[in-house]
Automatic annotation (TrEMBL):
PANTHER family: ARYLSULFATASE FAMILY MEMBER, ENDO-4-O-SULFATASE. It comes from Nonomuraea longispora. Gene3D superfamilies: Alkaline Phosphatase, subunit A. This is Sulfatase N-terminal domain-containing protein. InterPro entries: Alkaline_phosphatase_core_sf, Sulfatase, Sulfatase_N, TAT_signal. SUPFAM superfamilies: Alkaline phosphatase-like (SSF53649). Pfam families: Sulfatase (PF00884). Keywords: Hydrolase. Residues 41-335 form the Sulfatase N-terminal domain. PROSITE patterns: TAT.
Length: 486
């Protein structure tokens, strides 16, 4: 068995190119045409924490849940096949800010990006960009390399990351400074919603003290169990309906925060010169929804509004894109030289309404939980099929992660319904390979890897083998020995 890669053993694969034709992302080219005038655009990157890709109304969710996300989608491009490379907060953000998979940037879990791997901030600073971050400050490192000009941690200054007015106030400070200094800005505004503890939950009362609770804003709309739209990968039982409704209230407050920051941008007079990006760092913090490689774990509601480039109200439901693609796209927009050997690929042609070949599938990974337990997984998804390899599954090791906190997991684990109990047991142990026909099983409930679709399984295996080899995945030899050559 291969030893998992750490940042200290970052492979010579840091310079390995991205996947071969037909396997998703490819290296960016610094000579890609880019639409920009003589002044680089401002960049507002707004992230939400743990939002299911199907939650916003514009992505198929409840129509009244996210009016401001939906409005932004109507002003730009919404990518319906967008994914993060890994469904965990820090490595997801590290991959986005480097354009590289975690095993190629050294940040597989909650560690810093490896020395020598270019970081977006380092490329923007020489171009006079004023950089700021609101929330999630500790989820990007090392701090000295990001060197934010303004950083605000998600404490009482931001209402524990849950107060729209505080986000707007600090965003305005950066916008005003950028105008005063005549500099373009890059603001990464990170809502803590809808991360646990959910709004109105007992866990929220237990997590925060009285003074902290006083700084947290109420959502503009509060949902109850009767309002809950339970994702199809979860059983619809009372405890889960209750928790999903609390999650929805948190999602609504995230939408409120986006509205507040966009209003501040409009008031600054800078909106016409600003690229606005909206995304979630991973899926919903429930079983089968985060910290895995299931399609619903990594799918993100990606929206880009770029005045003069994107047009308004377009939906891209054809191309599979990755948040790693934002790195070369923003480098080119700002006028920075794109580093060699990226896994991300410039999105500009798609933003302009064009097409790109090699975007018919996406690869995703998982390495370790927030408690540093290794659960190596690899996934490859296209419009029809989802293939997963669970390198950790041995029939005895139990999966444990923070997505099992709260009401949902106990409701599944302790259920007297045989089907729910069996699904909970499967979640704990998994099997080595999983294969799902998303056209007929969109929530990945029926594993076909054991003879149910042999041709699709063979294609998934071949594609996984090629991708692991092209990106220098440290488990590639193990995969070939165990799956390809078995």
């Amino acid at each position: 068995m291969n030893t998992p890669l750490t940042r200290r053993t970052l492979l010579a694969g840091a310079g390995v190119g991205a996947v071969a034709a037909g396997l998703g992302v490819r290296p960016a080219s610094s000579d890609t045409p880019r639409p920009r005038d003589t002044r680089p655009p401002n960049i507002l990157l707004f992230t939400v924490d743990d939002m299911h890709g199907g939650s916003p109304g514009c992505f198929g969710g409840r129509a009244d849940l996210t009016p401001n996300i939906d409005r932004l989608a109507g002003e730009g491009v919404a990518f319906h096949h967008a994914h993060v490379p890994i469904a965990l907060c820090q490595p997801s953000r590290s991959a986005m800010m480097t354009g590289r998979f975690p095993h190629r940037n050294g940040a597989e879990g909650f560690e810093d990006i490896a020395d020598g791997v270019p970081i977006l901030n380092e490329l923007l600073h020489p171009l006079s960009y004023l950089t700021g971050i609101l929330g999630k400050v500790g989820h990007l490192g090392p701090p000295d390399r990001f060197a934010w000009d303004m950083s605000v941690r998600p404490d009482t200054q931001l209402g524990m990351g849950r107060n729209p007015a505080d986000y707007a106030r600090h965003a305005t400070e950066l916008f005003d400074r950028a105008k005063a200094e005549g500099r373009p800005f890059f603001l990464m505004a990170n809502s803590e919603d809808p991360h646990r503890p959910f709004s109105g939950s007992d866990a929220e009362q237990q997590r925060f003290d009285k003074d902290e609770l006083a700084t947290i804003a109420e959502p503009s709309k509060v949902y109850g169990p009767d309002d809950a739209e339970v994702p199809g990968f979860l059983p619809d039982v009372p405890e889960i309906r209750q928790e999903v409704s609390q999650y929805m209230s948190s999602a609504r407050r995230a939408d409120d925060t986006l509205a507040a920051v966009l209003a501040a941008l409009d008031a600054s007079g800078l909106a016409g010169d600003t690229i606005v990006i909206f995304m979630s760092d991973n899926g919903m913090a429930v079983p089968f929804g985060k910290a895995n490689v299931y399609e619903q774990c990594t799918r993100t509601p990606l929206i880009v509004r770029w005045p003069g480039v994107t047009g308004a109200g377009r939906v891209d439901d054809r191309h599979f894109v990755s948040t790693m693609d934002l790195f070369p796209t923003l480098c080119l927009a700002a006028g920075a030289t794109v580093p060699e050997g990226l896994d991300g690929r410039d999105l500009t042609p798609l933003l302009q309404g064009g097409s790109q070949s090699g975007r018919d599938r996406i690869n995703t990974v998982f390495h370790e939980s927030s408690s540093d337990q290794r659960y190596d997984m690899r996934g490859i998804h296209d419009e029809r099929w989802s293939y997963i390899w669970n390198a950790w599954s041995d029939g005895s090791l139990n999966y444990r992660a923070e997505n099992m906190q709260g009401l949902t997991w106990p409701a599944m684990r302790d259920s007297t319904d045989p089907a729910i109990a069996a699904r909970a047991q499967f979640y704990l142990l998994r099997v080595r390979e999983e294969l799902y026909d998303l056209a007929n099983d969109p929530h990945a409930l029926n594993n076909l890897a054991d003879g149910g679709a042999p041709e699709a399984l063979a294609r998934g295996r071949a594609a996984m083998d090629a991708w692991m080899g092209s990106t220098g995945d440290p488990l590639h030899d193990q995969y070939r020995e165990e799956i390809i050559n078995a």
